[in-house]
């Protein structure tokens, strides 16, 4: 059963147990706050799903103080708003009760149109419902994480066989980027590689266009440009996720090439022979959590991609060496070439 369906069923039970008018559940929204995750109501004036939790509302007070709260007579004018209704319904509510979920997972609140509807015993029972919801959310999260691990493993297995199925570089890279995006849930993935002189880099492949205008593959970006250029210079990975507040990025490739504004970015250097030869980039316009499992998966993808690039690099060096040798001594076409690119 989907998570949202489970939560709605629980809220409907809570509503029936307490003969409430509305029950709401706020959970983390992935953007450094809490949003209305789901609700069960006998009315139709509840705010839309996803509406942010109002800090100065009763729901916000329960969350911030991390303590249960119930009010049995809300007839007084100037009362603190509930935070999840439109202007009409808020004034009809006479009683309120709310409790925070364990581990700061959120808050569950309910109300009634009758005064003196709730008691301290009711508040304790609601707290038990809150603990049950927190436990269910934790179990669902653990199951999702385990399922994601299996997905990463299967994707890596497919990538291992991809080279045999797609021996041509362009087809191999396109498939690798699409498979990486599908497993990671990021919207954009692209690979940049350094030029032979080591003074600039260019986009070798992308699953979808990353620039607002122009063809990214036709542009040479100076080393050091944007976040990607920083990775080339420092040989270090970059991770920007939902916890990196205020780090929206539209300059992945430098100031002269504006990309979309990404709130989640991962840049991984592809290093061999002591140089960063490429950078694998994943980006998403909405904030996403970067788990340790996702990092491990992407590190393995980047290592596999590095091996492929290194093989291509050595083959190109071998071709260059043979061509040069043939120009000097055309008769010795079968000479053995030893390459040392230090």
From TrEMBL:
Give the range the annotation lists for the signal sequence.
none
> Per UniProt, what is one Pfam family of this protein?
GAF_2
Give the residues annotated as coiled coil: none
- UniProt-listed SMART domains: GAF (SM00065)
Looking at the record, the residues that make up the GAF domain are 2-147, 172-319
Instruction: Kindly provide the name given to this protein in its UniProt entry.
Output: GAF domain-containing protein
Q: Which organism is it from?
A: Desulfovibrio gilichinskyi
């Amino acid at each position: 059963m989907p998570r949202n369906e489970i939560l709605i069923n629980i809220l409907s039970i809570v509503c029936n147990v307490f003969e409430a008018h509305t029950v709401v559940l706020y959970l983390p929204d992935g953007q450094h706050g809490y949003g209305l995750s789901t609700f069960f109501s006998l009315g139709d004036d509840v705010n839309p799903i996803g509406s942010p939790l109002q800090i100065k509302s009763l729901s916000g007070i329960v969350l911030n103080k991390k303590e249960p709260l119930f009010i049995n007579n809300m007839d007084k004018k100037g009362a603190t708003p509930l935070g999840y209704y439109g202007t009409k319904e808020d004034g009809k509510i006479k009683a309120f009760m709310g409790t925070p979920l364990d581990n700061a997972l959120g808050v569950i609140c309910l109300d009634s149109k009758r005064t003196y509807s709730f008691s301290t015993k009711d508040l304790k029972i609601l707290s038990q419902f809150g603990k049950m919801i927190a436990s269910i959310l934790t179990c669902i999260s653990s199951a999702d994480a385990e399922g994601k691990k299996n997905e990463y493993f299967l994707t890596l297995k497919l990538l291992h066989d991809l080279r045999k199925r797609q021996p041509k570089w362009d087809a191999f890279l396109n498939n690798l980027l699409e498979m990486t995006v599908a497993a990671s849930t990021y919207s954009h993935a692209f690979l940049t590689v350094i030029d032979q002189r080591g003074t600039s880099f260019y986009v070798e492949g992308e699953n979808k266009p990353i620039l607002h205008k122009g063809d990214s593959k036709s542009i040479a970006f100076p080393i050091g440009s944007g976040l990607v250029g920083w990775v080339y210079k420092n040989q270090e990975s970059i991770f920007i996720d939902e916890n990196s507040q205020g780090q929206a990025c539209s300059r992945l490739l430098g100031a002269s090439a504006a990309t979309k504004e990404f709130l989640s970015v991962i840049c991984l250097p592809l290093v061999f022979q002591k140089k960063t030869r490429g950078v694998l980039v994943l980006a998403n316009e909405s904030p996403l959590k970067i788990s340790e499992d996702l990092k491990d998966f992407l590190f393995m993808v980047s290592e596999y991609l590095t091996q492929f690039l290194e093989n291509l690099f050595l083959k190109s060096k071998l071709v260059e060496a043979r061509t040069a040798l043939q120009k000097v001594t055309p008769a010795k076409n079968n000479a053995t070439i030893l390459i040392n690119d230090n």
